[in-house]
Design goal:
Blueprint lengths: L7 E6 L2 H5 E11 L3 H8 L3 E2 L4 E5 L2 E5 L2 E2 L16 E4 L2 H13 L3 E10 L2 E11 L2 H24 L1
Antiparallel strand pairs: 1-8, 2-7, 2-9, 3-6, 4-5, 5-7, 8-9
Amino acid sequence: MTKPDDGIKIVAQNRRAAHDYFLEERFEAGLVLTGTEIKSVRAGKAQIKEAYVRVEGNTALLVNAHISVYEPAARMNHDPLRPRTLLLHKKQLRTLAEQVKQRGFTLVPIRIYLLKGRAKLEIALARGKKNYDKRQTIAERESKRDMERALGRRG
């Protein structure tokens, strides 16, 4: 996955995304966080299981991501579910908004990670899977696993 020396620390992953969606194109976006939020993220207290990205005008927002309150901050804390602004280039933002509006894609957060101390979000342009697609994916994975087992026994 990631090497320990590349400066990336994965904080939260959305493993369900690959199961529920066909992930087409991936983008890296910066996260605009408050002081207590970044401290919680560095402590690994973030969750993006039910989060999604919404494009409004010329900004992208991460909605429904849960970043836990930072206990030592007491009353100066943040709202754990507040929408957070994403930092993207204008050109990327335009193409994402166009794809979501015209072609029926959705923007799904894949993982939150720290890169050189900065919080980043990997988002993917995704198309929803139908139930039969999910079953087919599971069947392919199981057949691949069976083949690996058979080859392992032979050698």
